[in-house]
């Protein structure tokens, strides 16, 4: 997330790898004397999982693969990646591998329950594991793309898989003719993303990739390639264009708020924020009480109550300006902004909300200005975005609203899709640690003279 003020340590994780030969149903093992263990692959936890497996298989074994599913390891055992080998002519023996039936693996590499699950995956018995937890689903996906574009002769030179579980998929198909298509599928807890994306496409078609087809049994959709992720904002002109496109999209969405809400966008309008501010404070008090690190003092309960009061006053002041509620992208980052050389579009709408539009701009502003990746002029970037709101505010109101909305933009991350703070995930140590860091960031902003003057104006 753009507003994550603490860089997190990049962790690595070892995976056991079950390489399935679909034409025989056999599994590949490494030859180590008299033992035949499963191969292992080290994956960086924060990067795209399936893409890393693809790249590692290509570099290490010179073969094409597709990740079918990830089995969580039992007890202290590492997780297991079930992978379909796509290269039938591959000489795997050249890489120290041999094919054996799954029954030949001892309990040291695969538990009986894992063996049973893998047998079901190979047999196509997916049960509740999802539509992609089976051999051959990628062939079905290619056929779906061909049917969608009405071209049975379409061939794909390059296929890249980025997400891999039984219910989730993200695949890029590049054809021999140069056309590029994406297939995305989502499961729990993001099943709403398909419906949300369809609603945004209807409301703001210029600012999202066109959807070509939807498949309800997969909860999946095919879209046209709409450019490359901006990655890092390499030039200020690009930053400015993204800011302007964001404002234009939000203004276009302002007359569709109820449709967006009923189609799955989470509600972060002022009334909801004010109603759930006590829930936020209670949660942060508990998170601060659970802090074990002595590197920084926890924020006191009294100060948290004060911050809640300041946020409520800021929200009420912004509400009085008459800025319309719009679509919010509550996870905006350079990876989900695409640019094709002319237009910027926005993707990955699992965290779509409705509410104060400037919350999203603050995420972008932090990414560009505070990380200083382009040496961007913050005044010019603000102006590029705020100029689109002159119909609603004069210059002084605009500056005041910009200052007051900044800590509320951070709070929008804390509220997220669970403003009542009822999710059990809220109590995990990593989520609490992240919440504490955001609360400290809000506290620092609230102590600035700029914020205090804006609040008292």
TrEMBL record:
Domain Aminoglycoside phosphotransferase: residue ranges: 237-389
UniProt-listed Pfam families: APH
Top-level taxon in the UniProt lineage: Bacteria
Name of the protein described by the UniProt record: Aminoglycoside phosphotransferase domain-containing protein
Native organism taxonomy: Bacteria, Pseudomonadati, Acidobacteriota, Terriglobia, Terriglobales
